[in-house]
Design goal:
3 domains; six-stranded antiparallel β-sheet; alpha+beta; 43% helix; Phosphorylase Kinase, domain 1; single chain; two-stranded antiparallel sheet
Length: 207
Amino acid sequence: MTDQKTMLNTILKLALASLQEKFPNFVMDGIPEQLSGGFLNYVWRVQGRKGSDPESFIVKWTPAYIASAPDVPLDPARIFIEASAMSLFEKGEALEEISQNGIRPPRLYHLDKERQLLFMEDLGQSPNLGDWLQSPHTQLEAETIGRSLGEFIGALHKSTAHQSLFARMFNNVQIQRTRLDFQYKNIQPYAARAGLSNADEIGKQAV
């Protein structure tokens, strides 16, 4: 545990140095906050200001393993593919039109290839998703947001399906295999625990 804490402190120092190199007018306020809930990577929120204007960044680092399961190796170059995907939603890029309905990924600010660090837009504090979904006061809002997300994902698939350019850019076999083993193969037991009568069929379709 101590070794991991030392390692993360070292990475964070490198991240702050990279941030200062790319954005020399940025002045950090307080201590960076490590964000919870990550499965594959380590993520921090770095708050500060540029001149008199508040500014904050989300910083992501991809280790050569799964952050939540250090014994499972994973290619750290995955961050390059993520950055490429985010950049396609920027103005004038191939997927700009899909993000016109108000649903979009965070903006990419900088990719430090040498240190495998990604700096992106901070979309602010959000409630715990599980608690928010279970609240009766947010059910209608959750349905509306869920529908919007579904429409966004559907448009994304429709625009990118059978496109050789995207197939080449995002053919990350190792990530696909990891998702199969750790996510899709677990859908059957998730559905069974939720009491769904067709859990076996759902699991087969997911795999």
